[in-house]
Write a structure and sequence with these properties.
Layout lengths: L5 E7 L5 H11 L4 E4 L5 H12 L5 H22 L2 E5 L7 H12 L4 E4 L9 H6 L2 E3 L2 H13 L7 H6 L1
Parallel strand pairs: 1-2, 1-3, 3-4, 4-5
Helix pairs in contact: 1-6, 2-3
Amino acid sequence: MTTSSWTVYLSGEIHTDWREQIMSGTKAAGLPVAFAAPVTHHEASDDCGVAILGLEPDKFWHDHKGAKVNAIRTRTLIGKADIVVVRFGEKYKQWNAAFDAGLAAALGKPLIVLHGPEHGHALKEVDAAALAVAVEPAQVVDILRYVIEGQLAGYTDAQQAAE
């Protein structure tokens, strides 16, 4: 088992509890993981630029300011991450998540992509850049356990030592 802490950046959809599932799973497994994420409060994320820097009459510039302020956080935290997990949900197209996956790949960050089979074709290029493509948050926890501790879920220490 490793004693150093790993930083995992959790990017992507904000409408389900997938982040909480991964965080509680790693905690239950006793893994030394710290998590980082974008701001997941939708309105705060959309309005941060104008709330801090001043109103914009044009929606394009409103969004532009918010995107740039959010990028300060996103780029910094992805840059510091040991692993980046990007979740694509069912309900919305997460263009920002695709951008985060591309940024992680460009920075050489180990990338785990999480999505259902219905997005396999649409995300084939993102999946090709990932080191793992998971369908369930529990699979991400198992990947983290394996890469951090070298332990495969369901195998005893004796089984792993014998092989």
